[in-house]
Amino acid sequence: MDRGPDSPKPRARWGTRLGFVLAASGSAVGLGNIWKFPYITGEYGGGAFVLVYLGCILLIGLPLMYSELIIGRRGGKDVLGALRALTRHRGPGGRILSVLTGTLAVGSGFFILSYYSVVAGWAIHFLVVSLGITSRSPDGAEATFLALVGSSALSVLWHSVFMLLVIGVVARGVHEGIEFLCSRLMPALVGILLLLLVYVGLTGGLALSVEFLFRPDFSKLSGEAILEALGHAFFTLSLGMGAMVTYGSYLKRDTYVVRDGVTVAVLDTVIALLAGMVIFSVVFAAGMEPGAGPGLVFVTLPDLFLDMPGGTLFGVAFFFLLLFAAWSSGLSLLEVVVAYFVDEHGFSRTAASWLFGALIWGLGLGSAVSGDFMDFFDNLTTRYMLPLGGLIIAVIAGWLLRPADREAGFLSLGDAGTPLARAWTLIIRFVTPILVLVVLLAKMGILDRLGFLRTGG
Ligand code: PFF
Questions:
Q1: 251-278 pLDDT, tens digit each
Q2: For the domain bounded by 17-450, which CATH number is listed?
Q3: Cα separation of 331 and 354, whole Å?
Q4: Which residues line ligand 1 at a C-beta cut-off of 6 Å?
Q5: Distance from the alpha carbon of residue 113 to the mean position of ligand 1, in angstroms
């Protein structure tokens, strides 16, 4: 399979269009949907936050999703290579910008996967506990969680298992590994989620949960909540670090980038909302408060499962859901790094997967043993690196690409394509970059200092 750099081999491709949509949805749907979205929605008060989040998906998520996919498809290479190919006509400036953005993107993949894998490892631990393979702490889920986080050995163990799961699949290839797995994981994930939904529909709490998520109370909306919603739009759709560029580069020329991008964004959003409905149903049925924070899934829920009829099974299904979501996202994080070293530096896929997978695993050891270390990389990437990457990608897509490259994806839409292309150009040139810049400045505390917004964090 793997040949040296001297014998150029045909570039990897998705087997089918559906396979690509499932892989890209697999990247988007992850811990961000099932762990983070529910807890931030809980913290920021529900409906109004959800509405702002939906607006961010529309104004930032969708335009950037299209930009990344079209850059990948037209550029036909890893994130740096695709950007360089499409900005070549801009001379040295385009080249420098491509190298900067590409390096930032690959760095983001590296850093995010290092701590993402540790949190995914927690999901494996809770799955194992739910299955009864390891005994749960008699003092409840909080004690189980604290024992896990407090035990370097356990955290490192599950982090290692997760990284092996990711590396093994990426090393097999785009079609044989990533597409093959996502084509199975994604339907399973949706199936589990729907079963859980039916279950909470029967056992109670669903009506309260729906009301919490969909009835906006704008008095609860803070500047901080808006910033969080903007930042989360990047993370949840896997934008700002070239994951969609890389996945887009394995598409055939005639692919319907616009429709597929919309499908991925809609699926991601629907799954986040459904996960929120399931989780808050359990929380409300037990008479608990929704604002438990990051511990919602690992501390609050497992205890509540125990009190539900058939709760063990529910718990097992839930943690399978979390693991499947994390696994398919982890693949894309590593793929960005691997594609870069394969395309730019002539590595074989197998060597790049194992070598860089091992380095990421090594960096992740820090997050496995220290919460502060994890918070540092989480903040660095989600607050700064992804928005910065997204900002530059928006500027490149809107201002630097040739019109033929820029608008290629809309051609397949026929008559509807032209007005849509115009709307997209307007948004990606002005709206998206300005909104992202505001988030970036706010997260850096600069707006705070100027007295515009109280962000608190
Ligand atoms: N979208 C993933 C989630 O919501 O958990 C996280 C992620 C995956 C971010 C891949 C970025 C990325 F490139």
A1: 987 668 999 999 999 999 999 999 999 9
A2: 1.10.4160.10
A3: 13
A4: 27-28, 30-33, 112, 235-236, 238, 241, 243, 329, 332-333
A5: 9
